[in-house]
Each structure stands twice: as structure tokens, then as C-alpha cells.
Amino acid sequence: MPTELPRECRRLLHEQDGVISARQATAAGMPPTAIRALVRAGRWRAMQRGVYAAFTGKPTRAAELWAVVLRAGADEAVLSHQTAAELWGLIDDPSRVIHVAVPHGHNPERSGPIPGVAIHRSRSIERARHPARRPPCTRVEETVLDLVDCARSFDEAYAWICRAIGRRRTTAPLIRAALRERARIHWRRDIELALGDAEGGALSVLEFRYVTGVERRHGLPKATRQARVRQTTGNRYLDNLYPEYRACVEIDGTAAHPEDEQWRDKNRDRWNAVHEGIETIRVGVPDLLNQERQCRIAADVAKWLSSRGLKVGRPCGPGCPVRLPEVLHARYDPKVHPVTGGRDRWGWRD
Predict the structure, then answer these.
(1) Alpha helix positions (H), the chain
(2) DSSP secondary structure letter of residue 68
(3) Which residues fall within 8 angstroms of residue 321, CB to CB, at 6 or more apart?
(4) Cα–Cα distance between 227 and 236 in angstroms, integer?
(5) 83-97 pLDDT, tens per residue?
(6) Residue range 188-201: mean pLDDT, rounded
(7) Once rounded to an integer, what is the mean pLDDT over residues 24-48?
(8) pLDDT at 48 (0 to 100)
(9) Poorest-confidence range of 88-97, 175-184, 247-256?
(10) 104 Cβ partners below 8 Å, 6+ apart?
């Protein structure tokens, strides 16, 4: 580091991965002529308009992010959306576009566009900003809700929640608290309900579809999610365990269960059956793609559980293959529920 640089300038370069803005440098005591001399000498180089790197060679990812933040406004801008998700470890590869949030009314592109950067405007940026992360970015809960709000489908929105909780970056209660602070957000009602399932252990979109589309819609008992079973090789976690039935439903997603590891799943199923008396059936991606297939799975699970204990299950509507337990002697009617006797969305009467 050049010794002629002011102390404050050296401190900023150290904290900002070798990147500094012209405004910061002049405020630290460097005249504009000194900045231009360093650039002409090749000791500094421009990374963004009015932002310089005090090194040669390829810049690091952190230096690139700092350059964009300083270009957008050092005191106002924060990294957000997919870029903040990158910093929080919610995605594994750097986002191609760098996302920056700025206060509503602030226009960092007045002096020209910023290539490769998406600008988001926020009225609550001070609440969203993490107090300590450098480079500055949104809090992890705010990052998740930003991604939820711009998701193209509810499955995509729920996947962000699952990833944040599953990777232990935050918890369902903290996301729920952040959600209450937002005046407007897409999927609000669905997200409020889904957070309860995520908190209960449904930490993938497929598991969420099983809980809502198979189990809850068809009156099946509530399973214990991610139930721990001790085995000789260590602890194992079962997706949906019905302890009173000694039965388990495992959700086979291609990411969690690649073909070359499926033998481990089969060995675990055999161990559970022999040593714990737990019988397992597996549900794959095609079984949960739509309501018709979910109904067929529900019919199989209801019949399977009923053969091992208390009779369970109810059809979700006309044409559903799930059969009511014989002890209820119920028939479809658009008024009263077969178990509670009250009205519900599907409508049943004894």
C-alpha cells in the first residue's frame, strides 16, 4: 500500500477489499489531482464511474460487489435479492446480475446506467439493512422475503424459505416477524400458512406438497417431520413418520436422492423394518405433480395406514379415490364434515 495515502484512505481500502470511491478518497484528504495521477501511473484503475481499485490483476468477487455498492451510493445502497442470497449462502454460484437496493427516490443512474446491475427501490431500506455485514446487504429474512415477492410461482417462493431454514441461516419465527413488518408482499396468506409447515419440518417443496395436497387435504393423521431414528451407523431422519402406525412415508426428490445413493435409502428402509418395526413407502416427484396424482397417493397411504391401526382418510371431493372409513357410514353432501359434523370447504354430512 503506498505510504503517501492518508490513513483514512488506507483504512477504507483495507475494509473495502481494495476498492474506494473518489468521494471517499477526497473526504479522506486526497486531492482529485492525486487520484488522477495514480490512475495515469497504473497504480489505480477505474472499476465503476467514480470508483477505483488500488490494485492490478483480476478483481475478486468481493471487490466487484464493493464497486457496485460504492457506485450506487456508499451510504444508501445495499446488496439485495439474489446477490444478498449469494452472500448469505442461499445460492452456491454468483448471480450473473448484481442486485442493489436503494432508498425510494434515490437514482444512482442519474450519471449513466450501471451495466450488469439491477436497481431495486425500497421505502424501508434502513430496517432491511444488516447492521454489520460488509459489503452492506439486506438481512437474511428480508432477503428471503424479497426473493419470495418476485418468485414466479408459489413452489419457487416456498423453495427459498426451505433453503434458508434448511441451511440454518434463519428460522420460521424470524421470517414470520419480518413478514409482519411488510405492508405489501406477494403470496402473503400462503406464506403465513407455509411457514408453519416449514417450522414443523417440511423443508422442501415436495414435502410441502405431500403435507398440504396428500395428508391435510385427505384427513390423514399428522406425521412427525424429520423424525430422528438412532441406528448403528448414526442418526437418521425420516421425512414423515407415523409413530402410532409404525409407518413412514419418504419423499424421493432427485436432488436429495440421486440414483447412485438410492441403495443407502433401501438399506435404511430395511434396517428400520427389521430393528424398529417401521415399514416405509416412498413417494417420488411424479406422484406429487398435480392434485389427481396426490389423490391416488392419498388413497394408497390411507389404505396402508388403516391396515395398521385406526381407520383414516376422507375424499377431497367427488371422484377422489380415497374411501371413507366404513365405521362412519358417510356419503358425500355439500354441507357437513364427516368427522366434526361442521361445515368445511369440501362439505360432508353423515
Answers:
(1) 7-15, 22-27, 32-40, 61-73, 81-88, 125-128, 140-149, 154-166, 172-180, 188-199, 205-209, 262-271, 291-306
(2) H
(3) 295, 296, 298, 299, 315
(4) 8
(5) 999 999 999 999 889
(6) 85
(7) 93
(8) 93
(9) 247-256
(10) 121, 122, 123
Confidence band, pLDDT 50/70/90 cuts, at residue 258 = very low
In the predicted structure, residue 350 carries a pLDDT above the cut 50: no
Buried b (16+ CB within 10 A) or exposed e, 75-114: ebbbbbbbbbbbbbebbeeebeebbbbbbeebebeeeeeb
Report the amino acid identity of residue 259: E
- The CB density around residue 336, as the number of other CB atoms within 10 Å, is 16
According to the model, what pLDDT value does residue 259 have?
A: 45
| Closest listed residue to residue 346, CA positions, set 319, 307, 312 | 319
Map out the domains of the chain as residue ranges. 7-64, 76-199, 205-313
Read off the C-alpha cell for 300.
394408497
Which DSSP symbol is given to 129? B
Give the pLDDT of residue 272. 55
Cis, peptide link before residue 135, omega less than 30° from 0: yes
Task: Give the type of residue at 10.
Answer: R
E-assigned strands of 201-265? 224-231, 234-242, 247-252
- In contact, 48 and 70? CB cutoff 8 Å: yes
Three-class SS state of 112? coil
Give the angle 130-93-44 at the CA atoms, nearest 5°. Answer: 70
Residue 297 · residue 322 · CB < 8 Å:
no
Sheet with 51-53: list strands edge to edge.
19-21, 51-53, 45-48
Q: How many other CB atoms sit within 10 Å of the CB of residue 137? A: 28
Per-residue confidence band for 268, with pLDDT thresholds at 50, 70 and 90 = low
Count CB neighbours of 206 within 10 A: 23
Q: Which amino acid is at 315?
A: P
Cell numbers 455498492 correspond to 69
Of the candidates 162, 163, 161, which has an alpha carbon nearest to the alpha carbon of residue 178? 161
- CA-closest candidate to residue 50, choices 82, 30, 72: 72
Pairing of strands 279-284, 331-332: unpaired
Query: Is 66 within 8 Å of 125 (Cβ atoms)?
Result: no
